[in-house]
Amino acid sequence: MTQALSTATPTVTLAGGATMPLIGFGTHPLRGQEATDAILQALDLGYRSVDTATRYQNQDAVGEALRQTSIPREEIFVTTKLPPDAVGFERKTLEQSLEALGTQYVDLWLMHWPPGGSPGAGSWREFLRAREEGLVRAIGVSNYQIRLLDALKRETGEYPEVAQLQWSPVHFSERYLTACRERGVVVGAHSPLRSARLDDPVLTETAQAHGATPTQVIIRWDVQHGVAVVPKSAHRDRMLSNLDVMRFTLSEDEMNALDALSELE
Ligand SMILES: NC(=O)c1ccc[n+]([C@@H]2O[C@H](COP(=O)([O-])OP(=O)(O)OC[C@H]3O[C@@H](n4cnc5c(N)ncnc54)[C@H](OP(=O)(O)O)[C@@H]3O)[C@@H](O)[C@H]2O)c1
């Protein structure tokens, strides 16, 4: 049996004051008992952040893990997401999420996709209301371009606190990262491993230099960029390995070499 990590996961403070772990557990496409078991194992290993969504149809399974674990609710950062087809039903969808999760609040509520490619200002106003009422601690978006972040700010006066998107060295965008930093938005990385080229020599050589694996290098690279990453695994040894990235540091040259793997722009 593997052991929980003694080193705490680094965190970031969001614009509204909430503290978010920089490494979280991705739950898609896990469902039912498999999802509950995986989340319980992840919590046992030291994860304190769980990424779910209405779309994943596993919020009840996440809720079951939250009920079964001995870790207090306030120590676990729970993210869920509003599907783009729930425009006009934001509050009802949030209430359904809270009920399925068996919790009075979520730590982070994201707009999963820009609804119909638009910024979704109407939904965003509902997000602001939900945060004011304490039903969600922080609010953000997913799969948004910078121009859509700016449109939300223009139309509602508020930027998202988090912008989650597909993000790995292959998708690295200095422009996106800098624009988010300038706007006080924390970048979140989804599909960090699935969307990467794990056999890229830059990655494998960097991993070798640190006695680490390519997946650990990617997760460490995210953490050093201040990006909140949510790798998923159904395997306990991989869950642990994905969390165990604080015992080595990537040099500036190594960070730059990984950034240069970007195939964007
Ligand atoms: N906002 C969005 O639109 C959006 C979209 C996609 C995903 N997400 C979120 O992001 C999370 C992660 O993304 P993802 O699930 O697409 O992909 P991912 O976490 O990048 O990769 C998961 C895949 O990598 C494997 N894996 C995990 N750890 C590994 C390791 N140490 N070594 C080798 N293989 C490893 C997993 O296999 P095993 O499970 O077999 O170990 C699984 O096949 C999702 O679970 C979800 O919470 C959000």
TrEMBL record:
Keyword Kinase on entry: no
Tree of life domain: Bacteria
Pfam families xref list: Aldo_ket_red
Annotated CDD domains: AKR_AKR1-5-like
Keyword NADP: yes
Residue ranges occupied by any NADP-dependent oxidoreductase domain in the UniProt entry: 24-262
InterPro entries per UniProt: AKR, Aldo/ket_reductase_CS, NAD(P)_OxRdtase_dom_sf, NADP_OxRdtase_dom
PROSITE patterns assigned: ALDOKETO_REDUCTASE_1, ALDOKETO_REDUCTASE_2, ALDOKETO_REDUCTASE_3
Keywords for this protein: NADP, Oxidoreductase
Gene3D superfamilies: NADP-dependent oxidoreductase domain
Family affiliation: Belongs to the aldo/keto reductase family.
Protein name: Aldo/keto reductase
Organism: Sinomonas terrae
Taxonomy of the source species: Bacteria, Bacillati, Actinomycetota, Actinomycetes, Micrococcales
